Amino acid sequence: MNLHIVALFKFNENYLMDAVELFQNLVKETRKEEGCLQYDLIEDKDNKGTFFLIELWESVEHHNRHNGQDHLLDFRKDASKIMESSAEVYKGFKIY
């Protein structure tokens, strides 16, 4: 069963270019992973510094493997230094 994820990130406005660079590498590398069906970065149109990752994984197991990848671990380490608050992550299965 496919796993859908929406992750919300809020970055300090002084670090927006840094955030975008971190996301670019994360998205590029994640899209290469087995089981990654969608991995898109969206910037909120009304709230500068607010970003969403829209993810679709072939299975929970594929996403679990993603969680151990170096590019994700590096992103988490570097992004945590410039984020306003912790990321909010929502996971679920399509019901309709």
Automatic annotation (TrEMBL):
InterPro entries: ABM_dom, AI-2_Isomerase_LsrG, Dimeric_a/b-barrel. It comes from the Bacteria. Keywords: Monooxygenase, Oxidoreductase. Coiled coil: none annotated. GO terms for molecular function: monooxygenase activity. The keyword Oxidoreductase applies. Signal peptide: none annotated. Residues 3-93 form the ABM domain. PANTHER family: ABM DOMAIN-CONTAINING PROTEIN, QUINOL MONOOXYGENASE YGIN-RELATED. This is Antibiotic biosynthesis monooxygenase.
